């Protein structure tokens, strides 16, 4: 089977479920076009949503709109000026009007709120160096000149932003309007390995090999990522639809 056929096979697999249509699939594959922030505060807010993208954390943090006043309408420059440390931000949240669903335990280093405050402060410090979304856009596109520099960007974000691992940095980029990135999560990794696109053992290797695959078949990384993720998760979130997919059945059918 030719490599490019994996894409059609993935689409056919999803279409085998009665509720799924080509229009539903395409809306998810093209969703990146409407996700790009138009201002630095919008980018900051999007970053904060990604910073809590770990198991159980959203249930502790709740709706981040409740932090709007403490975070100066999501202005990273104002946040960076006001809070010199995560503990100052933690105290401000504790004294504020927002009552989060999770407990505020300042002395517990594993507390979701301690981790989240550290992420907020580091994100604010990083984004406050950009005066406009166009400047940040130029920064990102400066890394898209070749496959090596593209790999370097999520590695840089991983070092600059507390709580951003490599995969989360990739997810932040691809879900904020930069479709040249894939997120090597459990579904993407399993399917890419199962189809022989990669034999890498770590996220970095999967990212590199899957990006090369996308280039070979002349398809946007975001589209391939989203298609494989839908096969793995069955979550058509734009349509509030969940179907009982199995990535293992999909891989088995292709390999047979």
How far is it from the N-terminal to the C-terminal residue, by CA? Answer: 10 Å
Helicity range of the residues?
A: 55-70%
State the secondary-structure class. Answer: mainly alpha
How many strands appear in the DSSP assignment?
Answer: 2
Percent of residues in β-strands: under 5%
| Spatial order of strands in the largest sheet | 1-2
Q: What is the general shape?
A: globular
Round the mean pLDDT to the nearest integer and report it: 95
Q: Would you identify the regions where 5 or more consecutive residues have pLDDT less than 50?
A: none
What value does the Rg take, in angstroms? 19 Å
Q: Count the helices. How many?
A: 14
Question: Biggest sheet, in brief?
Answer: 2 strands, antiparallel
SSE order: HHHHHHHHHHHHHEEH
Descriptive overview:
- It is built from 14 helices and 2 strands.
- Strand 1 and strand 2 form a beta hairpin.
- The N and C termini lie close together (10 Å).
- The radius of gyration is 19 Å and the shape is globular.
- The chain has 256 residues and is mainly alpha-helical.
- The model has no long low-confidence stretch (mean pLDDT 95).
- The relative contact order is 0.15.
Tags for this model:
mainly alpha; two-stranded antiparallel sheet; globular; 256 residues; 14 helices
Q: What is shown here, in short?
A:
The protein is an all-alpha fold and 256 residues long. The protein has 14 helices and two strands, in the order H-H-H-H-H-H-H-H-H-H-H-H-H-E-E-H.
């Amino acid at each position: 089977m030719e490599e490019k056929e994996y894409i059609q096979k993935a689409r056919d697999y999803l279409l085998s479920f009665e509720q799924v249509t080509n229009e539903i699939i395409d809306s998810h594959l093209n969703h990146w076009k409407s996700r790009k922030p138009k201002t630095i505060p919008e980018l900051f807010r999007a970053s904060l949503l990604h910073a809590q993208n770990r198991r159980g954390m959203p249930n502790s943090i709740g709706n981040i709109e409740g932090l709007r006043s403490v975070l100066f309408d999501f202005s990273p420059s104002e946040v960076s000026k006001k809070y010199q440390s995560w503990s100052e931000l933690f105290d401000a949240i504790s004294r504020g009007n927002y009552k989060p669903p999770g407990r505020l335990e300042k002395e517990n280093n594993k507390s979701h709120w301690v981790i989240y405050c550290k992420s907020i402060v580091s994100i604010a410090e990083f984004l406050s160096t950009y005066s406009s979304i166009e400047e940040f856009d130029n920064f990102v596109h400066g890394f898209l000149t070749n496959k090596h520099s593209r790999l370097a960007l999520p590695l840089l974000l991983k070092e600059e932003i507390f709580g951003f691992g490599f995969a989360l940095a990739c997810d932040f980029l691809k879900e904020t309007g930069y479709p040249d990135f894939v997120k090597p999560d459990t579904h993407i990794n399993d399917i890419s390995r199962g189809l022989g696109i990669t034999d890498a053992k770590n996220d970095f290797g999967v990212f590199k090999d899957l990006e090369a695959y996308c280039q070979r078949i002349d398809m946007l990384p975001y589209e391939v990522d989203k298609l494989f993720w839908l096969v793995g998760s069955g979550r058509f979130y734009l349509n509030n639809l969940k179907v009982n997919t199995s990535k293992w059945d999909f891989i088995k059918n292709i390999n047979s």
